[in-house]
Amino acid sequence: MLVFVSLLLCMGSFINGGLTSRYKEDASMMVMRSCHDKERHALLGLKANLVDINNTLNNWRSKEKNDCCQWAGVSCDKHTGHVTELDLSSSYSYVLSGNISPFLSLLPQLEYLDLSGIDFQFNPIPNSLTSLTSLKGLTISGANLSGPIHHHIANLSKLDFLDLSNNFLSGPIPDSLGDLTSLTEIHLSRNRLEGVIPTSIGNLPRLIELDLSRNLLNGSVPDFVRSTFLRQLDLSRNRLTGNLPNSMGKLSNLRYLDVSSNSLTGVIYDVHFQTLDVLIYLDLSFNSFELNLSSNIGFELLTIKLQSCKLGPSFPMWIQTQRYFAYLDISNAGISDFVPAWFWDLPPRLRFLNISSNDIKGTLPDMALVFEDYPGMDFSNNQLEGMIPLLPSKLAALNLSRNRFSGTLSFLCRIDAALTFRDLSSNLLSGTLPDCLKKFYEKLVVLNLSNNSLSGEIPSSLGFLSELQALYLRRNAFVGEVPTSLNNCTKLRFVDLGENNFSGNIPAWIGETLSELYVLVLRSNRFNGSLPSQICFLNNLQLLDLSNNLLVGNIPRCFGNFTAMATRRFQDDITSHSYSSYVATLPNATSVGATEYCPGLDGGFLSCFTNEDALFIDNALVAWKGTQRQFERGLYLLKSIDISSNKLYGKLPSEITNLRELVSFNISNNKLYGEIPKHVGQLRYLDTFDLSRNEFSGNIPLSLSNIDRLSYLNLSYNNLSGRIPTGTQLQSFSYTSYSGNPQLCGPPLIQICEPSPPPATVVGEEDVQDEEDELWKSYYIGMSSGFVFGFCGICGALFLNCRFRYFVFASSNNMKDWIHVTVVHFQSLRMKFRR
Question: What pLDDT is stored for residue 571 in this prediction?
Fold first, then answer.
């Protein structure tokens, strides 16, 4: 019985305990589901300050008993019901816009706040944000914030993560930021911040990551000796000066160091890497550093970027200790030496190798290497020579330009079809284009074979390159017509076939199928026939060069339809072509921004790779102010037409003045005639204007003097006449700009203009009739008045003088005849004037 009772008691206790536990769990669930009314109203106030075009905050409603802890982006403490996390980030898509609401200050327990990607329309960070004293993480990146970072940020004493990157913040970094001793990460990159880096930041004891890149910071690199946990330091793209502190070598946990693109100086010794045993990423490029490293350095880097540092003149021997690098850039490093044999035993994980723009001599060895990925190699602008040897079959990019390589292009047939970029320009290569080029149809983006001795016709197989964006065949000896198969290359944006021996008509299909073209250069060939009007279909065309050919006929009136030359749109991205086929295959890679790809610093990655290193920048040789000039980085700003040195005739269409963004216009050395369009002054951005050696006549339009940007003008050897319009602009040019026009006068010419007659007005037929009537009305009134006064005088004389009376009557017959003749004469004059 006692056992039974005990069993019942145990069961009751179990049941009661279970019920109590269940009740507690339900109570906990009830607390977790509810939120404080004050905080719910604060969130609704936040919503009221935002424009929500995608209805992202649809479930944020003001109904009673509507639990804000269940709202999108809101997290609450499950015990207290206070809002602890608010994440409204929108991945830079700007689906939300407006202001940062002051109601946020009514969330006293908020620990994590992420408002990234909201368009705050260049409003500043409100001071109310600094009242969130429980905040541990604050992220507002890519949100169009402006103004300074307030020094009251020190009120956020618990803050351990701060990300205000990619905004328009300006002013200095507050020194009070160094008072936040709990900070582990600071990200302030991509703003307009200026001033020195506060030394207090270098004293943060828990700091792990610091990114201040892409600002306007000046002064020296602070001492980070107290930030012993620092793993990632990025101070790149600022205006820092001075030396790299020796204390940098004491940061034993540092794995990522980037101080590139500053104005830093000094010698880099082993002491700078004294304890950096775990360093794997080093970027010192674009400074004035001189590296003096021994072969005993203890780290092995995965990414080495030393572009424009001084490593030479001898080849840096310390690189022999780097056996596992995936990225090596020692370009423009003052090396004038032969490459040692050990260097060509490249790591199998190589992804990018750049030794360009040095004075490296010798030949390339056979490199039958097998890489795990498809690397890019840049050996350009050196003194390398000889036949191009056996190259690795797996290549994504190859740049051998501006060397002295000779031989044919047959080596290309041994490279894998994954090659996306090939620049072999400015060498001594000869022979024809191999038919095997068609195997690159899936990947090849850029093909540059300019400035060689290649010959023959373009094979029709080139039309298989459907991904091709840039084709350079300039300055070779190619002949024949442009093959029709190229109309399959519909992604072409840049075509330069200049300075060859191409012939035939300019294909009309260029305008019909290559709609992406922004540069078309066919200069210095033997193209004949008329200008096809289909070229006018190229709405993206910004540079057209058809000069020095055998073209005849008129300039089509539709030349005024080039949209890109008529409207202002600066697209810097059109001049560059991404050629890396392996960017998207980086292990553990995450997209950091629009142009960056960077694996995290934790585990299993090879290097941080920026897409900016994988760009080919278009370049064009343009006739500019009487000489040839190479345009590269600023090519997207150039809008130019050059059809000079042909056999074109007819008038210059007035529609050409529609191209209001035109910068350079050259139609010299043709047979064009007629007047210069009087509205030429509408080309307000014109810098170069050359109409010389044609048959233009008439006056120089007065509107030409209104183009204040004009710096080169040549109207010489035409049939222009009259006075050169006065004004500081046209008189500032040399007399040679106007010579060869015998009837032209005025400064800067020595021919003096004749005094100008009173300005004539243009009148119509009715105006002429009115003037005639007024003329004759005045004549008749004057004649009548004179007759009356004369008659009275004569009658008086006749009455008073007898002898005079006889004389008058004797002469009356003669007077009658004189009046008759006079009237007839004036009537004849009137009829003549009417005619």
Answer: 72
